[in-house]
Amino acid sequence: MRPLIAERGPVAQPRPQRPGRRDPAPSRWAYRIERMWLVPRFRRLCRVGLPVFAVFMAAGFWFSDPANMRRITDTVGEIRREIESRPEFQVNVVGIEGASPALADEIRVVLGIDLPVSSFELDLDMLRARISGLPGVAGAELRIRGSGYLAVLIEERQPAMVWQTRGGAVLIDETGTFVAALSDRPDTPPLPQIAGEGADLAAAEAIELFEAASPLGDRLRGLVRVGERRWDVVLTDGRRILLPAHGARAELDRLIALDDLQDLLARDVVRVDMRNPERLTLQLTPHALEEMRRMQDFIRQGQQGQGDNRG
User: Are the C-beta atoms of 135 and 116 separated by less than 8 Å?
Assistant: First the structure.
């Protein structure tokens, strides 16, 4: 029988290493680097971060030289000038649309553009602000169109009345805003006339009164603001209609109706005072007043004669 425990044979002895052969086991630093390389962030840092950092460092060192900066600036400026001076970016014509000839001349002076000019050199917002500052301009818009055409679209203030001031006659719109001096617009058609201090502040009421007084036709000369609170209607022959401070439109309508029924304004009347709504006051001409007094004296004498005859 064999024994249950086998006999152990001789143990093999390790081979002695040859002199000069490298140990295949990794070193401590190599092991650590291999372990760190397994981390995704470390790989991105080495593949992306370090090259980008190196590029920025080199660029910063290169741009720190003033000569290099001037060279780059000159090159960029030359490229920009070449692009801006190309024919397709040149503005050769300025067209003003929606403005009268007189206002168009004022706009050209305000623009002050020497043609041709590059569209990159035009500050449209600044030019729009200049044009909008003109009294006769209600709104402005600038557009650069094809073929080097600068379109200036104008919304012009339309004069509604002539305001007679101490400095001369001026044109105002329906809101009382100054448009231009009448001497600067000699081709302006005839417009209703107003006068007096603060008349421009009540322009809306004046327009209503002109509409109400339209039946007067050519007899109407204009309106005069009195005390900055009420209006006088002035006729061509110098006669006046004194309107109240409140309800002037209604009182003027009432006077027009009386004139249609009784030809009130065709009589020898200098003034029609309507400031008191409860009483209409008429101021007669000197001739009419003398005639009225003569008739009153005649009537008075006739009454006295009748009294004497009865006695």
Answer: no
